[in-house]
């Protein structure tokens, strides 16, 4: 009976992890697997997982490629990037 109990607990940890991961814009199936394989650690991982699409962005001054604010060198043209004017920063997660 102990194996069935373990499978039920693993399923619900996987389900909780997957629901949180899906709400943050990631894959339901991938987070379900992470939560089922690593029940407690997977749940903590998805709670502290950040959304990349909500990170502030700016444009490269040379090639105008949109880049995340934490990028220091443009991967397209190699331009060194410094902190931009706050008015030039786009916040995709803020409406």
Describe this structure in words.
The chain is mainly alpha-helical and 95 residues long. It contains three helices and two strands, in the order H-H-H-E-E. It has helices at residues 2-23, 28-37, 39-48, and strands at 57-59, 66-68.
Mean pLDDT: 89
How many domains? 2
Principal-axes geometry comes out as elongated
Strand content: 5-15%
Structural class estimated from helices and strands: mainly alpha
Describe the structure concisely for a colleague:
Helix content is 44%, strand content 6%.
Keywords:
elongated; 2 strands; two-stranded antiparallel sheet; single chain; 95 residues; mainly alpha
Blueprint of the fold:
Elements: H1 2-23, H2 28-37, H3 39-48, E1 57-59, E2 66-68
Antiparallel strand pairs: 1-2
